[in-house]
Design brief:
With about 375 residues, the protein is of the alpha+beta class. It has one domain (about 1-369): Metallo-beta-lactamase, Chain A. Helices cover about 20% and strands about 25% of the residues. Strands 1-2-12-9-8-7-6-3-23-5-4 form an 11-stranded mixed sheet. A 6-stranded mixed sheet has the order 13-14-19-20-21-22, with helices on one face. Keywords: Hydrolase. This is MBL fold metallo-hydrolase.
Length: about 375
């Protein structure tokens, strides 16, 4: 469900994004088609946490519902350790019959931490079939270019990076208005240099035949985007985003509070279990994200809600409202990571005490047969 990108008034081919490497069959920009998708089903899914903010060295094998958790591998060299940092990176392995697929979702804050953990955990880049970036925050793509510089030759020649849309490439800024500082922009010139095609998945699309993305997430419930970064809608020398096809002309060049227009979630439909919805930060609302996955797939049963939910800064009354809405979704298990917040974990323990699974850097969670 992908088409080659052809909008002349947007970004005209690889040269417009700063690359003269567009040779042969390499196409640097594609668009997910606006058509219903055939949602695949898998027998089994494992999620290995490559990067998160903490590690529990006392972790023991366990189970919450039908989801098992295994601790990080013990290190043979005591002088080396897994690196924890603010950010997220997940190594997703799925199986259907004898067919296996591997997807890397997000890339942490720094390549140093990501490359260290890939080696110590034993994740195999040569098995990766596709890459996904959830949204345009540095703590989710900061390790990507360093990862490509080391492992590009191990990846498929036609490997694709699935981004939720053009907004994923905007320049971000942190801080208060009047005192903003740069927070980076994912540089497509580097992606072109590494011959990585980008799929702008504003619409739902199937990834590596086993997963699917939600596309642009509708905002229909009580949730709101909590204060985070500011975003600039401009392109300069190939860096930044061209908002001309999704925002009014007067927005071009503006820096405004970030609404994460094209944030998307990555999902799997696990046989006899239901949907696993992975929201790396969930700025647009974790309940909105799950409902979008249900609408896109036609599958209502929610097996697991996984990832960052950006509820760390949530006021208590709003947090409790969101957890109550999650409860209505009847998930089998809730696995908060990254920016979800200790306050979220406490609220889940209060309202859904038997559904919470706490994960940390290095662990592997397995769902399905």
């Amino acid at each position: 469900m992908i088409e080659q990108f052809k909008r002349r008034d947007f970004l005209t081919g690889c040269a417009a994004i700063g690359g003269a490497v567009a040779a042969g069959s390499f196409s640097c920009i594609e668009f997910a088609k606006a058509a219903a998708i055939d949602v695949p089903m898998v027998d089994k899914l494992s999620i290995r946490v490559l990067i998160d903010g903490s590690q529990n060295i006392f972790e023991r094998p366990g189970k919450v519902g039908n989801v098992s958790i295994e601790p990080a591998p013990r290190q043979q060299d005591y002088r080396r350790a897994l690196h924890n940092q603010w950010g997220l990176s997940l190594y997703l392995q799925s199986q259907r019959g004898n067919e296996q697929r591997t997807i890397m979702l997000d890339f942490g804050y720094t390549p140093e931490a990501l490359l260290n953990n890939i080696e110590l955990i034993g994740a195999d880049p040569s098995k990766i079939n596709a890459l996904v970036v959830s949204h345009g925050h540095f703590d989710h793509y900061g390790g990507l270019i360093g990862f490509l510089q080391k492992y590009r030759s191990a990846l498929p020649a036609d490997v694709k990076l699935y981004a939720g849309g053009e907004d994923n490439f905007c320049q971000r800024y942190s801080g208060a208005p009047g005192a903003l500082t740069e927070f980076g922009a994912l540089d497509r010139r580097e992606l072109v240099a590494n011959k990585v095609s980008v799929v702008l998945a504003e619409n739902p699309t199937v990834v590596a035949d086993h997963a699917f993305t939600t596309g642009k997430i509708k905002r229909t419930g009580i949730e709101r985007v909590l204060p985070n970064t500011h975003v600039g809608f401009a392109v300069k020398d190939g860096l930044g985003c061209n908002a001309s096809h999704y925002l009014p002309a007067e927005m071009v060049g503006k820096i405004v509070p970030d609404e994460h227009i094209h944030e998307h979630a990555t999902c799997f439909n696990v046989k006899d279990r239901g949907l696993v919805v992975i929201s790396s930060c969930g700025h647009v609302g974790i309940v909105n994200s799950v409902r979008q996955a249900q609408e896109v797939s036609g599958v209502q049963k929610i097996h697991a809600i996984v990832g960052g939910f950006h509820l760390g800064p949530a006021p208590e009354d709003y947090l409790n409202q969101v957890v109550a809405e999650i409860k209505k979704l009847e998930p089998d298990v809730i696995i908060p990571m990254h920016c979800s917040g200790d306050n979220f974990a406490r609220a889940v323990r209060a309202q859904l005490p038997d559904r919470l699974l706490v994960s940390t850097t290095g662990v592997r969670m397995t769902m399905g047969a």
